[in-house]
Amino acid sequence: MHLGFDLSASRLERYLPALEQLRVTWCLIPHRGEDDLGRAAYAVATRGILPIARWLCTIDENVIDFARYARLLGSMNLPAYVQIFNEPSNPYEWRDKLPKPRAFTARWCEHAARVVAEGGLPGLQVLHVEELEAVLRELKALNAQSVIERMWFCPHPYGGNHPPDYPYDELNQRAHPGATLNDDPDTILQFLEFAPVFERELGFVPPFIAGECGWQFGNASDPRYPKIDDALHATYHAALFNMFRTNRLPNGASLPDFVYTFCPWILYGAEADAWYSATTGVRQQTIDAVAALAPFVRGETKLAPPPPPAPKRPPLRHLLLFGASNREKWHRLVLARKYAQRFNIAFSFSLRDAFHAQRVTIIGDTLQVSLEDEAKLKRAGVRVERWLGDLQALEIILQDRLARNVEFEK
Fold it and tell me: Would you say domain 318-404 falls under CATH 3.40.50.2300?
């Protein structure tokens, strides 16, 4: 999901429950600086959601440093997905409102190399095939193999007011027999036109993470089709996410493995097409339709088997779960002892023990206790929170909890 532009603590607190209701697993964060990104990334990551950083800067700003955001996410032990610039052909993405293709290509390659040097994963966003070709050819000319191996692509496939299988739907095919997405890119399938370019230039297709996409409420751009009202908005977005369950695109073709996720525009804000819009109201039908999709594992037509039922819980209110492979686990345990003693909290290094608890606080990053294991606990009815960061960050969290006399915040 694409978050709103207000990343204040109060806004995040208000709308993060919606992400959980929708069972969001990836979230694009449109931030204006390190404070916004750090606050939002921590908030979503502790709920088992992977953050994607998109800095709201213009391409021709004088001082630009994307590497600092890779360092920030890395310090939180999160994979540093960092989108570098946005829609270079759009005049509004430039200070002087004049797109400069060559300047964009040079700047993207330069900043991508810096992000990779910090262990990050640079994201490329362009709207047109020609822009993609220019960047890939420049990377090859620079022999930037490290960037090529770690980059990901960020398409923006919007559907207009077309159905999910457009332009292969019956109405369009009657009017334009044999039409393909190359004839009209106003389709949710538009991302497919970029894959052959990667194959031709690089010999493989990197991960695709759609940073913006979906159907905008009220869109009526094609008079042949009805306006996107609440009912169509709900039906179409449910079909979009359902393709990961069926492993099929809306036109019946196989869902390519390189498609990682879609982040529909936009969860909340003043925008008329936001799912929680301050101007047009709440897209409640969409929220209900997406939330009603049964849990599944991608590509399986049958539902994923539920985790084995946990044994009947003894009277264990709260458990601190330390990752078994964490080399600092004993240091973390020592730091947490006052907190555990004050609230009479048990601790363990075993996920199995966590299924016996009513509440679990995971102390460690996703390398120690995976997002998948966290999700299993939640599906088993366990209330879960996660503390990320190094020993210094843990000490700050513990001091705050003790000072406020707060045991659990979820």
Answer: yes
